[in-house]
Amino acid sequence: MGGLLPELGKKLAERWVSLLVLPGALYLAVAATAHTLGHCRPFDLTRLTQQIGTWASDPVTKTAGGQVVLLVAILAAAAAVGLAAQALGSLAEWLCLAADWPAWPPPLRQFAARLTTRRRDRWARAACTWHQHRDEAARALLRGQRADPAARHAAERAMTRIASEEPCRPTWSGDRLNAVAVRLERDHHLDLATLWPHLWLILPEETRAEITAARQALVRANALTAWALLYLPLAAWWWPAALITVLLTLMGRARARTATDTYATLLEATARLRTRDLADCLGLNPCATLTPETGDALTRHLTPTAPPPPTG
After folding, report:
1. 151 and 252 assigned to the same domain
2. Rounded to the nearest 5°, which phi and psi values hold at 310?
3. pLDDT (tens digit per residue) in 183-231
4. CA–CA separation, 243 vs 231, rounded Å?
5. TM segments (predicted)?
């Protein structure tokens, strides 16, 4: 126990430095650069060096007490900026996944509804094209021929670029996660929201580590979007900050899509592979394959009973 607490403290300190202080310190450095250089001479390294020398030659910074106070102030400011980025990252993830968008405030809810409707219309057209190519390929097989799959694959890619299943959320990432629940319900009559907490408890440690890592990758991807929002105000003083904002936004969007797809794939694969183990643990005696009947039995067994009517 005596060695556990120091090791735990060391790991927490490392995470605090890597997640909050270092990105925050970089932000403070860019902010100081923006304040010093401005729009007129955005890349004037000589002026920046001179300003740093002026700050370093200040009498306060030459004393040990002043240096300690300055270091503590920088660390505190960097941590505060990092905490702000984490809060914005949570907001970015909430908007990105849009799980409860019908409960959003009115202006945002109306915008999300219009976006969802537009995505659903685009997906319907793309899905119709894909199904037409599938039907043509099936008819060709009946005639003993094989149709060129290039057009069918292109139509499928065009459909999945919009959503894997019929859109019901305003964002691609939200629909990608929702597609897991849709497919499990359609194929095996499984309610993922009811199933997952119980399934998680019986998963091997390696599987849980993989899923946790994928989830953390999604958090980090949305954190990039948060940092982009924080760098945007600096563009009012230093126009290169706008380029940083654009770069972080593009990186955050690409990484969020990749992380969401990986996370959703792991969730679906785990549910399909391990649900029979959960049924075994509950004594439901599933057959060799996961059938809709097993899914119905699991859902009924795991769903809490409704509260009784109020008395009186």
Report:
1. no
2. -65, 140
3. 999 999 999 999 999 999 999 999 999 999 999 999 999 999 999 999 9
4. 9
5. 16-37, 68-88, 228-250
| Statement to judge: residues 152 and 196 lie in one domain | no
**Residue 128: how many other CB atoms lie within 10 Å:** 11
Say yes or no: 85 and 139 in one domain.
no
Block residue for tokens 């240096």: 67
For 234, which DSSP code?
A: G
CA distance 13 to 311: 53
> The tokens of 202 are what?
């019986």
Write the single-letter amino acid at 237. W
pLDDT at 79: 84
Q: pLDDT per residue over 43-100, tens digit each?
A: 777 787 777 777 767 676 667 777 777 778 888 888 888 889 989 999 999 999 999 9
Question: 10 Å Cβ neighbour count for 99?
Answer: 12
> 22-37 and 205-231 are packed helices; what angle lies between their axes, rounded to 10 degrees?
10
Say what the pLDDT of residue 114 is.
Answer: 96
Residue 18 forms part of a structural domain: no
Of 145, 170, 195, the last residue of a domain is 170
Nearest alpha carbon to residue 227 among 257, 211, 250, 209 = 250
Task: For the chain, report the end-to-end CA distance as a whole number of angstroms.
Answer: 54
User: Cα(7)–Cα(10) distance, rounded to whole angstroms?
Assistant: 5
- For 41, 101, 226, the CA distances from 111, given in Å and listed in that order, are 41, 10, 21
Tokens 């401005």 sit at which residue? Answer: 38
